[in-house]
Amino acid sequence: MKIDTSIIISTYNSPDWLAKVLCGYNNQTYRQFEIVIADDGSGEETFDLIEKFKGAVFYNIVHVWHEDRGFQKSQILNKAILECQADYILMSDGDCIPRPDFVEQHVKYREEGYFLSGGYFMLPMAISKAITEEDIYSGRCFDISWLKKQGLKSSFKNNKLTSSGFKSWLLNRLTTTNASWNGHNASGWKKDILAVNGFDERMQYGGQDRELGERLMNMGIKGKQIRYSAICLHLDHKRGYKTKESIERNLQIRKDVKTQKKTWTEYGISKEK
Predict the structure, then answer these.
(1) How many CB atoms lie within 10 A of CB 24?
(2) Residue 83 and residue 99: Cα distance in Å, rounded?
(3) Phi, psi for 253 (deg, rounded to 5)
(4) Is residue 123 a part of any domain in this protein?
(5) Pairing of strands 185-189, 114-122
(6) Which structural domain range is residue 58 located in?
(7) In a domain, 273, yes or no
(8) Domain presence at residue 93
(9) Is the dihedral of CA 185, 191, 196, 202 positive or negative?
(10) C-alpha closest to that of 186 among 96, 85, 90, 67
């Protein structure tokens, strides 16, 4: 089978959530992809889990790891980008279970000169823990009726899971949310990502994904909104790596990118230019 899509999944010491995510990719309607796991320093439990899955799923898994030096997601993502074999890259996180048509939707809407901005559906911790492998393979964890039985409250956001066809197309057009590069659900051409030198490795948690998209847009690559078409379930977790200092520094970097219309970071994949 020819691989035409590389999917980068970021993770850090969350093997229970990663297992659910990898099951989700083993349940995809579109199968011409590989998985590249961008591991920001996980321990042995994650290594063992990945080895187990390598022999249990239809897709190839590449495990890209570096030593734990705190939150260095931008660095490990850049290393993972270089390991991608396909011309097209889809990025998500190890806490996001893809709906069965997730990859299919990204492939359907991809287009030269664009990157795709998908959506997510945030689950509370209780439901995140309750989802089993069987729930993923049967698809019921994406069913609103089932989720409500687990305690999910009614909300307009539930349209993300109930929309398809014309309704999802219309909501994609009407949404006021910008088509930004979202680390949990975005895709683009590898040549475009390399042309802006990947992620800025100075950036800690908070907006490093959007900053990449902003440089892509400065280069003339447009964002296309598919947040009601390409959906993943975002499992709940703590965010101990979020600090005021990292947020403020990242905002300043993004401000510089905007005012200077920068397309290249000197702190990305290549350090030479």
Answers:
(1) 26
(2) 25
(3) -60, -45
(4) yes
(5) antiparallel
(6) 5-260
(7) no
(8) yes
(9) positive
(10) 90
